[in-house]
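## retry 2 of 3
previous attempt timed out at serialization; input unchanged, resubmitting
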Amino acid sequence: VVGLSWFAAAAYCHWLTELRRAERKAQGAEDEEPREKLIYRLPTEEEWEWAASGGKRPYPWGDAEPDATRANYGEKVGHTTLVGAYPAGATPAPTGLMDMAGNVWEWMDNLYREAEECRALRGGSWFNDPENLQGAARFNWFPDDWNLIIGFRVVCLPTFDRLD
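## retry succeeded, writing output
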């Protein structure tokens, strides 16, 4: 999904959390122990960078420079592509995350520290130069604005109710 504001992406995550909660309740799973609940949200920059680079790779796939088999970037295609169109650009197993570099910038949950009225973006896009595909590359955008080079990725976190 592209062309939506940070607020719309965050609202989708909240909606997904509530939808899954309602589904579990309808299935009677709310009474099971432990009381695991799933929370869906946008990733933080730290979470995203670790997922993209493992803390040691310059690019999601490793050390090799970007090319047309690994990512959609540099206006080579001229638009977004389907998720998974660049399997050579996936992160190493066991995660195998797709499209962590190129295709679309991804909204982050956190503010951009250097411009706190903006939200952080990660990943680069089909429009960008290869340096924006590095795991450490970052950008910012106003949260109430949108662009066709910005999308989002959802993080799913388990949480547990206290058992008294």
